[in-house]
Design a protein that fits this description.
The complex is a heterotrimer of chains A (807), B (162) and C (284). Chain A has 807 residues and is α+β, with helices and mostly antiparallel strands. Chain A folds into three domains: 52-160 and 219-310, Aldehyde oxidase/xanthine dehydrogenase, a/b hammerhead (Aldehyde Oxidoreductase, domain 3); 313-490 and 654-804, Aldehyde Oxidoreductase, domain 4, CATH 3.30.365.10; 503-650, Aldehyde Oxidoreductase, domain 4 (2-Layer Sandwich). Helices cover 28% and strands 24% of the residues of chain A. Chain A has 20 helices and 31 strands. In chain A, α10 (354-362) packs parallel to α11 (394-412) and α13 (445-456) crosses α14. Chain B folds into two domains: 5-80, Beta-grasp domain (Ubiquitin-like (UB roll)); 87-157, DNA polymerase, domain 1. Helices cover 38% and strands 15% of the residues of chain B. Chain B contains six helices and five strands. Chain B has helices at residues 26-33, 78-83, 88-97, 106-119, 125-131, 143-158; strands at 5-11, 14-20, 52-55, 58-61, 74-76. Chain B has a five-stranded mixed sheet with strand order 2-1-5-3-4. In chain B, 67% of the residues are buried. Chain C has 284 residues and is of the alpha+beta class. Chain C has three domains: 7-53, Uridine Diphospho-n-acetylenolpyruvylglucosamine Reductase, domain 2 (2-Layer Sandwich), CATH 3.30.43.10; 63-173, Uridine Diphospho-n-acetylenolpyruvylglucosamine Reductase, domain 3 (2-Layer Sandwich), CATH 3.30.465; 179-283, Enolase-like, domain 1. Chain C has helices spanning 14-24, 37-42, 78-83, 85-90, 92-97, 104-107, 112-118, 124-132, 149-152, 227-233, 240-253, 264-283, and strands at residues 7-9, 28-31, 50-53, 63-66, 69-73, 135-140, 143-148, 153-155, 158-159, 166-173, 179-186, 196-205, 208-217, 224-225. In chain C, the strands form four sheets. Chain C has a five-stranded antiparallel sheet with strand order 4-5-10-6-7. Chain C has a four-stranded antiparallel sheet with strand order 11-12-13-14, with helices on both faces. A three-stranded parallel sheet of chain C has the order 1-3-2, covered by helices on one side. In chain C, a hairpin with a 2-residue loop joins β4 (63-66) and β5. Chain C is globular, with a radius of gyration of 19 Å. The chains are: A alpha+beta (807), B alpha+beta (162), C alpha+beta (284). Chains in contact: A-B, A-C, B-C.
Chain lengths: 807, 162, 284
C-alpha cells in the first residue's frame, strides 16, 4: 500500500516568496512539493479564459426572472400577456408552466434526523416566500429586451406575515409553512454522559453569547448557465459554472425526466465559487426546463443585484456558549446553544441543516475534554435561502470556541497561548475520539502552536503591546486554533441518501507523441486543481510537467465523481490520479520490456523516457512507446495488448472526515475614539499533510483568511423587518479590498494522512475557518484596558463604540 | 426610442465601426459586438473594477461608459495589451506569484496595475494597496497581487529590461 | 442589469446643449462623467427619454487662475484636479480631498461639475465648495447666473439649478499665505462614500485661528456648516479646551440621521472626533 517506487516526496517548502524553479523546469525526482506556477493561469492572464457567459450558441435565448418584491406574499394575479408581446420576447412562463417540465424538490437528507422542508419549485406557484424569489420567467433575444419586458408583467399580491427575526421564528409567532406545524427545519440535541454533574462541580464556568451576521459569497462571476436541449436526441447539454457537474447531471436528469446518460454537464472557467456554485438554484433549473420547452439554447447569468437576493447566504447564528474549567485552567467541557436562521426552504440537495450540524460537531474541536452538551435549532425565515459557503460552520465553531477560551484565560489571569498549551489535545494522543463522536487520525496542535508563536514573535508583540498601551495606542493579539473537515467520505451526504459522490476517478492516457492527458472528476474554480494534477501526474508517470494536459469538469469525458467541495480535490482526486499514473507507468514498462526484451524490473520511466533503472540511460523515449503501442502493435508479442489508458478511483474509507488542524493569529490596532480597527498583520500555521504546491496552498489560505476577515469586519446582508434586503449592491455590501487587508504570513507543519499514498489532506477552507475567531480575539485583547468585549460580528465601528460606552 | 448610432472606435489599435444602441455600455459592446470576452463585468455599477479598460490612455470603468461615448476614441483591452507586450512584465510577475486564481478580476487588475506602474514609479507598498483598492478580488486576498506589482516597480526602478 | 432604452445627443456647443435641454425638459438627463448616472441607468433607477452628452462642449474642462479666483470648468475631471499644480497652490483643500473620491478609474472620468450638480450629501466636492465659499456659475438660454455655494446645495440630490440651466464653472477664492486647510473623512474602506467627513479651512496667524470654516459631509441632506463650532473657535488658539468647547457646540449644529450602518449617535460622535483632528491639523 505504501509503495513509493519512483516517487519521491520532497518536504513541502513553506514560503510566501516566489518559487525557485522557472515554469519549464524538468525534474527527475518529482514535482510534489514544488511551487510550480500554473500553466492554466496563462490564458486567464491574457483575457483568453472561457467563462460560461462568453459562450455563444446558435439561436441563443436569454431568460430573465420576474421576482417577488415581497418577502412573503400570495400571488393573487399574474398576467404575462403584455410582457409576452414586448419586442424581442420569445416566451413568458409562470410557475405552473415550468412545473410541467421540471418537478419540485425537497432539501432533506435521512441522516439529519427529523429535518423537514416543503417542496420547492423552480418558479414559485401561488406564493413567494422571500424577496427575490422568481415567480415568472421571460425569455427574449437579449437580456436587455427581457428586462424591458419585466416592466409589463402585471402582478397583484396579497402580503402575508413576514418572519425575519430568528427568535420570533423559533417562537412560532407566525408559521411560514403551516403544513409543517412550526418553523423548525432541523433541531439536534446532544449530551455526553455525566455532563450536568461535571459542570455543576466545576471551579469556574464562563458564559458568553456570540452573534454572527448573515453574509454571502460574492463570487465575481455571477452564477451562469447555458442549457442546450436537443430535441432530435432528447439530450441536454448544460454549460454551468458549478462545482459538482455529476451531481447536476443527476439532478437535471431526474427533475427534467431526461435519461442520465443523455445529460452532459460541462464546466468552463469559473469565476470564483467558494461553495456558492455547488447548490441547486431554482432559476438555473428553470433555465434548463425552458431550454427543453423551447427546444433552443437558453442562457441565464445572475447580475449583481440578483446575486445578492438569491445566491445562498450563510452564517446567521446566535450562539450561547459556556465553558467549564478548573481554576488552573484545564477545560472540563463545553455547553452550546446555537440558534440559526435559514431561508424559507432548506436548499437542495445538501440541506440547510449542515452548517448548524457542523457547529455542533466542531465546537471545542482542538481541546481535550470529555463533557459536551449541544442544542441546535435551525429555523425558517422569509429571508434568502442559506446553505454551505466556504468553511461551512467552522468560522462559527472556531470563533465561539476560541472566544470563550480567551475569556476563560483572561478571567483566570493565564496568558492565552499558555491556556491553549494546557488544553490542546496532545500531539501523541491519536487516534482520538471527540465527544461528538468524530474521530481524529492525527493532528499536530502543539507543533503548530509552537511554530506560530515563534513565527509571530509572540513575546515581542506582547512587549510592544504593553509599551504602546502606555502611550494610549491600543493593539490586540488574537489566537484561534482550529480543526477542519476535509476529504469527506460518504458520511457527509451519501449516507443520507444524497446522490452526491464522495469518490473520484482519474483517467490517464499516454498520447502517441509521448504526452499525457488526464481526465479527473474533481473540478477547477481557480484554486489550481488542474495545476496540482499536472504535478501529480507528471510525477506518477515519469514525464516532465509540460507534457501533461488536464481535463476536468465534463461529465461526458471524465470518470464519475464528486467534484469540488469540502476541501477534497487534492486529497481524493489527487490520490485517484496518483494511482492511475502509477498504473500507467507500470503498463508502459510492460510494453517497453516487451520491445526491449528485458526484465521490466530493470527499467523505470523518468524525464519522458523509459530508462535503465540502474544507470538512468534512456532506452526508449515515450514517443516511441506511443508509436509502437498505437501504430505498430504488430511488432509486439502475439498475446500482448498494450493498455496505455488507465482509470483508477479513490474513496477515503478509514475516517469519515480527514481532519486537518491549524492555528491563526491576528494583530490589530484599535482607534478607541472612532471604533475603527486596523488589521496590522495575520499569521497562519496550517497542517494539511502533504503539500503538493506550496505556493498554491499558501494563496488559498490567504484568500480564505481575507474572506473570513470580510465576515468578521465588513460583510452583512441587512434585512428590514419586512424582509427587504437593504444593501443588495457592492456599494452597500462591503467586501474587503486591497486597502483593508493585512499581509499574511503562512507556514506549515506536515502530518500526511495514512489513508492514501499521496498523504494530502484538504486546505481550501482553512483560512476562512480560523480568521474570524482570531480577529475577534485580537479586538477583545485590544479592549482589555477598557474592560469591555465585543461578540457580535461584523465588528463595526458602531458595535465597538457601543461596547466602549462612547454612544 | 430604439435609435442606433454609428460609432467608430479604435479598439486595440484598429478602427471598428458598428451600429450601437445608446444604452449599451462599453463592456457589453466589446464582448457582444467584437467578441473580446477578456473584459468582464462583476456589478455593472462601478464598484468592483472587473470591467477596467483603457480609454485614450487612461483606465476607466467600462460598465460606466456607453459604447457610443467611445466614438472617435481609442480603447485598449487586455487582449490588445497582451499582444502588444505592454502587459508582459506584470503578467509574468502575476504568473510566477500566483497573483490570480479564478482569473475573473485579472484583466481589470492588470489594466489598473499597468496605469499604476506607469504613473507612480515610486509607489510604496501602502500606495500600491491604495491605488489597487478599486479592484475587487475574492480569491487571492490581494497579497500576491501587491507583491507582483511591487516587484515590477522595483525592477523598473533598477532599470533592468522587463 | 441592462439600462432601459433612451435617445442620445451630443451637442457641439453650449447653445445646442441648452436648446436640447429646453426642448426635452424633465425627460432629459445631462451626461458629464457618468460615474453616477450610468450606474443608476444600469440599475434602472433612472429612466430618461434622452441623454444629453456634454463631453464635446469646448472650453469647459479648464483649471486656470483669473484674478483672485481659481476657475475650474464643470468638465474638469477629478483626476486632473488631483494632479493640478494650480489647485495644489491655490486651493489645497481640493487637492487634499481628491484622493478620497472613489478610485482612480472613477476619478479619470468623473467631473467636478457633475459631482456638484448631483449633490450627494456624502460627496467630497460639495462640502469643499461650501467651505471655500466658492461661486457656482450656471448658464441658461437667458445668460449666466452666479450662485454662492452656501445657497447651491438645497437637499438630497437637489440644487439651486433651475430647469434649463447647466453648471459650467466654479470660481474658488484663491488661498492666501495664512490659509490652512484640512480634509478628513472616515470610511470603512478606502474610496467608500464618507460615513462622516469634514472640510476645514482657517486663517492662521500667530497660532490663532480666524475665519474658521468647518463644513461636514455625510451628516444630512446637504453639506452642513458647523456654525456654533466655528464660532467657538473663532480667534482662538487650538487648545484642548477650545477644541472641547467646539466639539460640545457641535450638538447645536448637527442632527445627523442614521445610515445603514451607523446610528445618529455614532455619526455625531464621529463628527466630534473629526473636528478635533481637523482643528489639530489646521493648527499644525
Amino acid at each position: 500500500m505504501n509503495d513509493r517506487t519512483g516517487l519521491e516526496l520532497l518536504a513541502p517548502a513553506p514560503r510566501a516568496e516566489k518559487p525557485d524553479q522557472p515554469a519549464q523546469t524538468q525534474l527527475l525526482t518529482g514535482y510534489i512539493g514544488q511551487s510550480v506556477p500554473r500553466a492554466g493561469a496563462r490564458r486567464l492572464l491574457q483575457g483568453r479564459g472561457s467563462y460560461t457567459d462568453d459562450l455563444k450558441l446558435p439561436r441563443l435565448a436569454h431568460v430573465v426572472f420576474f421576482r417577488s418584491p415581497y418577502a412573503h406574499a400570495r400571488i393573487r394575479k399574474l398576467d404575462l400577456t403584455k410582457a409576452a408581446r414586448q419586442p424581442g420576447v420569445l416566451a413568458a412562463f409562470d410557475g405552473r408552466a415550468i412545473a410541467e417540465y421540471c418537478t419540485p424538490w425537497v432539501g432533506v437528507l435521512a441522516h439529519l434526523k427529523g429535518i423537514k422542508s416543503p417542496p420547492q419549485h423552480a418558479v414559485a406557484i401561488e406564493r413567494a416566500c422571500w424577496q427575490g424569489e422568481a415567480v415568472a420567467a421571460i425569455v427574449a433575444e437579449s437580456r436587455a429586451q427581457g428586462e424591458d419586458a419585466l416592466a409589463h408583467v402585471e402582478a397583484e399580491w396579497q402580503e402575508l406575515p413576514v418572519v425575519t427575526d430568528m427568535e420570533d421564528a423559533l417562537a412560532n409567532r407566525s408559521v411560514i409553512h403551516p403544513e409543517l406545524g412550526d418553523n423548525i427545519c432541523f433541531k439536534r440535541d446532544f449530551v455526553t454522559e455525566g455532563f450536568e454533574d461535571a459542570f455543576a462541580r466545576a471551579d469556574v464556568v464562563l458564559e458568553e453569547t456570540y452573534g454572527f451576521g448573515r453574509h454571502t459569497g460574492v463570487t465575481l462571476e455571477g452564477r451562469a448557465i447555458v442549457a442546450d436541449y436537443n430535441a432530435g436526441e432528447h439530450s441536454l447539454t448544460v454549460y454551468q459554472a458549478t462545482q459538482a457537474p455529476h451531481m447536476m447531471q443527476d439532478i437535471f436528469s431526474r427533475h427534467l425526466d431526461i435519461p442520465e446518460a443523455n445529460v452532459r454537464v460541462i464546466c468552463k472557467d469559473v469565476g470564483g465559487s467558494f461553495g456558492i456554485k455547488v447548490h441547486v438554484y431554482p432559476d438555473e433549473m428553470a433555465t434548463a426546463a425552458i431550454s427543453v420547452m423551447l427546444r433552443r439554447p437558453v442562457k441565464f447569468v445572475a447580475d449583481r443585484l440578483e446575486s445578492f437576493l438569491t445566491d445562498i447566504h450563510a452564517r446567521e447564528h446566535k450562539a450561547k456558549v459556556r465553558l467549564a474549567c478548573t481554576k488552573d485552567g484545564k477545560i472540563i467541557g463545553f455547553d452550546l446553544d446555537d440558534l440559526t436562521s435559514i431561508g424559507p426552504y432548506s436548499v437542495y440537495p445538501r440541506t440547510s441543516g449542515i452548517e448548524g450540524n457542523q457547529v455542533v460537531n466542531l465546537t471545542g474541536g482542538p481541546y481535550a475534554h470529555k463533557n459536551y452538551r449541544a442544542k441546535l435549532n435551525v429555523v425558517f425565515t422569509n429571508k434568502n435561502l442559506t446553505c454551505q459557503y466556504r468553511a461551512v460552520g467552522h468560522p462559527i465553531a472556531v470563533a465561539l470556541t476560541e472566544g470563550i477560551v480567551d475569556l476563560a484565560a483572561h478571567k483566570l489571569g493565564i496568558d492565552p497561548a499558555e491556556f491553549r498549551r494546557r488544553n490542546l489535545i496532545p500531539d501523541d494522543a491519536y487516534p482520538y475520539t471527540f465527544p461528538s463522536g468524530l474521530k481524529f487520525e492525527q493532528l499536530s496542535h502543539h507543533r503548530c502552536l509552537d511554530k506560530l508563536l515563534e513565527l509571530m514573535d509572540y513575546e515581542g508583540l506582547r512587549a510592544e503591546q504593553k509599551r504602546l498601551r502606555e502611550n494610549k495606542v491600543y493593539r490586540g493579539i488574537g489566537l484561534a486554533a482550529m480543526i477542519e473537515v476535509t476529504n469527506p467520505s460518504p458520511a457527509f451526504y451519501g449516507v443520507g441518501g444524497a446522490r452526491i459522490s464522495a469518490q473520484d476517478g482519474a483517467t490517464v492516457r499516454l498520447e502517441p507523441t509521448g504526452m499525457v492527458t488526464c481526465l479527473v472528476s474533481v473540478t477547477e474554480q481557480g484554486q489550481g486543481t488542474e495545476a496540482i494534477f499536472q504535478q501529480i501526474c507528471a510525477t506518477a508517470v515519469g514525464v516532465s510537467i509540460d507534457k501533461v494536459r488536464v481535463i476536468t469538469g465534463d461529465t461526458g469525458t471524465t470518470p464519475y465523481g464528486g467534484g469540488t467541495w469540502a476541501s477534497r480535490g487534492a486529497g481524493i482526486g489527487g490520490e485517484a490520479l496518483l494511482q492511475a499514473g502509477k498504473a500507467l507507468r507500470a503498463n508502459i514498462l510492460e510494453l517497453a520490456a516487451a520491445v526491449l526484451n528485458v526484465d521490466k524490473n530493470a527499467l523505470d520511466v523518468s524525464a519522458d523516457a523509459v530508462r535503465d533503472k540502474a544507470t538512468g540511460e534512456a532506452k526508449l523515449p515515450l514517443a516511441e512507446v506511443g508509436r509502437i503501442g498505437y501504430f505498430r502493435p504488430d511488432t509486439l508479442p502475439l498475446k500482448f495488448q498494450a493498455e496505455l489508458t488507465v482509470t483508477r478511483h479513490y474513496t477515503p474509507r478509514e475516517y469519515g472526515f480527514t481532519f486537518t488542524n491549524g492555528i491563526q493569529a491576528s494583530y490589530v490596532e484599535l482607534d478607541a475614539d472612532t471604533g475603527f480597527v486596523k488589521l496590522l498583520k495575520h499569521w497562519c500555521v496550517e497542517d494539511c499533510g502533504t503539500v503538493i504546491n506550496p505556493m498554491l496552498v499558501d494563496e488559498q489560505i490567504r484568500g480564505g483568511i481575507v474572506q473570513g476577515i470580510g465576515g468578521a469586519m465588513l460583510e452583512e446582508c441587512l434585512y428590514s423587518d419586512e424582509g427587504q434586503l437593504l444593501n443588495g449592491s457592492l456599494a452597500d455590501y462591503l467586501v474587503p479590498m486591497s486597502g483593508d487587508t493585512p499581509d499574511i504570513v503562512v507556514a506549515h507543519v506536515s502530518t500526511p494522512t495514512r489513508q492514501s499514498e499521496l498523504g494530502a489532506k484538504g486546505v481550501g477552507e482553512a483560512g476562512t475557518a480560523g480568521a474570524p475567531g482570531a480577529v475577534m480575539n485580537a479586538i477583545n485583547d485590544a479592549l482589555v484596558p477598557f474592560g469591555k468585549r465585543v461578540s457580535v460580528q461584523p465588528f463595526t465601528p458602531e458595535r465597538i463604540l457601543k461596547a466602549l460606552g462612547k454612544i | 426610442m430604439d435609435e442606433f448610432f454609428d460609432a467608430t472606435i479604435t479598439v486595440n489599435g484598429k478602427p471598428v465601426t458598428r451600429r450601437v444602441q445608446p444604452r449599451q455600455h462599453l463592456i457589453d459592446f466589446l464582448r457582444e459586438e467584437l467578441g473580446l470576452t477578456g473584459s468582464h463585468y462583476g456589478c455593472e455599477h462601478g464598484a468592483c473594477g472587473a470591467c477596467t479598460v483603457r480609454v485614450d490612455g487612461e483606465i476607466r470603468r467600462g460598465c460606466l461608459m456607453l459604447a457610443v461615448q467611445a466614438h472617435g476614441r481609442s480603447v485598449d483591452t487586455v487582449e490588445g495589451l497582451t499582444d502588444s507586450g505592454e502587459l508582459g512584465a506584470l503578467q509574468q510577475a502575476f504568473h510566477e506569484r500566483n497573483a490570480l486564481q479564478c482569473g475573473f478580476c485579472t484583466p481589470g487588475m492588470l489594466l489598473a496595475a499597468q496605469e499604476l506602474v506607469a504613473t507612480c514609479p515610486d509607489a510604496t507598498r501602502a500606495e500600491i494597496r491604495e491605488f489597487m483598492s478599486g479592484n475587487l478580488c475574492r480569491c487571492t486576498g490581494y497579497q500576491a497581487i501587491v507583491d507582483a506589482i511591487e516587484e515590477v516597480i522595483a525592477t523598473r526602478r533598477k532599470g533592468a529590461p522587463r | 442589469m441592462k439600462a432601459p432604452a433612451f435617445a442620445y445627443a451630443k451637442p457641439r456647443t453650449l447653445g445646442e446643449a441648452l436648446a436640447l435641454l429646453g426642448r426635452h425638459g424633465e425627460g432629459a438627463r445631462l451626461l458629464a462623467g457618468g460615474q453616477s448616472l450610468i450606474a443608476s441607468l444600469n440599475m434602472r433607477l433612472a429612466t430618461p427619454a434622452i441623454l444629453i452628452d456634454l463631453n464635446a462642449l469646448p472650453g469647459l474642462d479648464g483649471i486656470e487662475v483669473r484674478g483672485k479666483h481659481l476657475v475650474i470648468g464643470a468638465l474638469a475631471r477629478h483626476r486632473a484636479i488631483e494632479r493640478s499644480e494650480l489647485v495644489a497652490r491655490h486651493a489645497p483643500l481640493l487637492a487634499q480631498a481628491a484622493p478620497h473620491i472613489a478610485h482612480v478609474a472613477i476619478r479619470n472620468a468623473g467631473t467636478f461639475g457633475g459631482s456638484l450638480a448631483m449633490a450627494d450629501p456624502a460627496a467630497e466636492w460639495p462640502a469643499c465648495c461650501v467651505a471655500l465659499e466658492a461661486t457656482i456659475v450656471a448658464a441658461s438660454a437667458k445668460g449666466e447666473r452666479r450662485i454662492a455655494a452656501a445657497q447651491f446645495f438645497k437637499s438630497l440630490y437637489t440644487t439651486a439649478l433651475a430647469p434649463g440651466e447647466i453648471l459650467t464653472a466654479v470660481e474658488v477664492p484663491i488661498a492666501g499665505k495664512d490659509s490652512r486647510s484640512a480634509f478628513l473623512e472616515l470610511v470603512r474602506r478606502h474610496g467608500d462614500y464618507a460615513i462622516v467627513g469634514i472640510a476645514a479651512l482657517a486663517q492662521r496667524s500667530r497660532d490663532a485661528l480666524s475665519q474658521v470654516r468647518l463644513v461636514y459631509l455625510g451628516v444630512g441632506d446637504a453639506p452642513v456648516p458647523a456654525r456654533s463650532a466655528m464660532a467657538a473657535l473663532e480667534g482662538q488658539r487650538a487648545t484642548p479646551e477650545a477644541i472641547a468647547a467646539a466639539q460640545a457646540a457641535l450638538e447645536q449644529d448637527l442632527a445627523p440621521p442614521a445610515d445603514l450602518y451607523h446610528s445618529a449617535a455614532a455619526k455625531l460622535h464621529l463628527a466630534r472626533v473629526l473636528l478635533g483632528r481637523a482643528v489639530a491639523a489646521l493648527a499644525d
